[in-house]
Amino acid sequence: MSNAENEGSNSARLALAASLHSAIRNNHLEFFEDIDDTVHEIGFDSNSLGGGHVTEVPEGLDLAGAQDLINHFAEGSEVLKVRMDAWDGIRTLENESNLLTFLATGLLSTLERESATAATGILSCTLPQEVAPLNSGFFGGQDLNLERMRLGASNRWPGRFPHEYGFEAEDAVWFGVDWQRYTAYWIKRACATGDQRIVLATLQMLAQVRVGLGMTSNDRIVRQLSEASHFRSSDSNRWDTSGDGSKKNEAYGFKRARQLSGSTLVHGTFAWKGSWWHPSGTFHDYIMQNHRSDLYKDGKEFSWSGYYSEKHRDLAGHRFKRWVDSEGGLRTAIGHSYGGEVIARAVNQGATINEVVLLSAPIHHHHESMLYNVSKVFDVRLKFDIVLFAACARQRIPHVPNAMATIREFRLSTWMWNHGATRDPAVWKQNNIARKISL
Fold first, then answer.
1. What residue ranges do the domains of the chain occupy?
2. CA distances in angstroms from 206 to 55, 115, 119, 318, listed in the order given
3. Which of 169, 196, 260, 288 has its CA 20 to 30 A from that of 32?
4. Which residues contact 95 (CB under 8 A, 6 or more apart)?
5. CATH code reported for the domain at 245-437
6. Mean pLDDT, the chain cut into blocks of 10 residues (439 residues total)
7. Who's near 92: CB < 8 A, 6+ residues apart?
8. Measured distance CA(44)–CA(122) in Å, rounded
C-alpha cells in the first residue's frame, strides 16, 4: 500500500483523513458534499457522509485516536497492517478513532510526500491543549528539543535538523528508511506508556520535526505541504459559516455605479519571494496580455509579508485597502491561496473592488462577508487540493443569503499535486479557464 506508485492516492487519503477528523469534531461534514466524486476515486465511500454513520460529534476525538493507536501497537501489529485496517474503518466512517491512527502510520512512511502530508495533517487536526507537557517524565524531565531527540534515540536521524539549515535552504536530502526507524522508535515507545496524552505529544513533536525538514526539501510539493501546517493556528474561525452582513460596505452601491478600471494580483503565503505576480512575471504577463490589459504594471505593486499569521493577513488587508483607495478602486483583484483572504479583508473594510478571482483559496468567513460587497467572484481550484485538505481548510464558498455577488466556479478535472497550478499560464491555456468562467 505504501510505495511510490501509490504515493499520490495514499497522500490524498491522508489529507482527507485530517480534514475528516477536524470536520467531525466541529460537526461540519457538509463541507465534503461537493467532493463526493473526487473522494470516491481514492476509495472513500462518499455515501457515508450522509448515511448516518456519524450521528454525533465524538467527545475526546484526539484521545480516542491515541488510544486506538496504543491498542494496535500493544497487539504487536505490523505498521502496514495497522494502516490498512485503519483505512478500512475510515472509508465508511465506521470508526472515527481510526483517523488519527491512519495519520500516524502515514507519518511512518519512507516516502517523502506521504510523511509530509501526514505531518501537516496531524498538526492541523489535533488540538494542542489535549497533549501532555513536553517536560513530562516520558521525555526525561527536560524540555524535548530536537538535539535531545536525536541523541536520545537508538535509531538516530542521520540528516540535519531544521534549525541547522538556513531559512532559504531548499536542498535537504531525504532519508526515508532512517526516518521510518526514527519515528517508529518514538511512537512505539510512547504507545508503550499507555498514556494517550503522551502519544499525542509525541505525534505532534515528530510532526513538527517532519514539517521543519519538509520546509527545506528540494521537492517543491513537499515544501508546499509542510508550509500548510501553519494553517491550523492562522485562523480561529476556519469552520465559521456565519456570513456577516453587518460588515457590508454601505458606500459600495454608489461606487459600483462608476466604471472601474485597473486590476492587480495578490500573492499568497511565502510567495513574496516569487516572481509570478510581479510585472513581467509569467502569470502577470499572461493575464495582462490575454485577459486584463489594465493589470497593474508600474513600480509600486502591492505586496505583503506572506507570513502564515492571521495578524499579518489582517495588516495586509488594511494596507491593501489603502493601496486600492490610492488607485481609485479596482475592476478586478486576483488572489492566490491566502492572497484571496487579503483581498476579502480589504473589501470588508471598504475597498472598492468589482470582481474577485480566487485561485486555490482556503475559504474563511472573510470571503463570505465579501460577497455582500462585490459583484462577481470567480473561484478556480484543483479537483483535490492536497495542501488545503491536509491543512483542514474549507474549499468551497457556501451559499450566503442576500449576497450581492454572483459566483462562477471552475474545478480542474485532472489530479494535480501542485497547490500553485491555478496560477500557471500553461494550466489556464490547456483548460481554457478564462473562457469557462467568462473572465
1. 4-234, 245-437
2. 32, 11, 8, 37
3. 196
4. 68, 89
5. 3.40.50.1820
6. 72 86 73 62 66 50 87 79 83 79 93 93 75 52 43 46 48 80 86 88 87 85 84 47 45 50 88 80 94 91 82 92 94 94 95 95 89 93 86 81 86 82 94 93
7. 45, 48, 53
8. 19
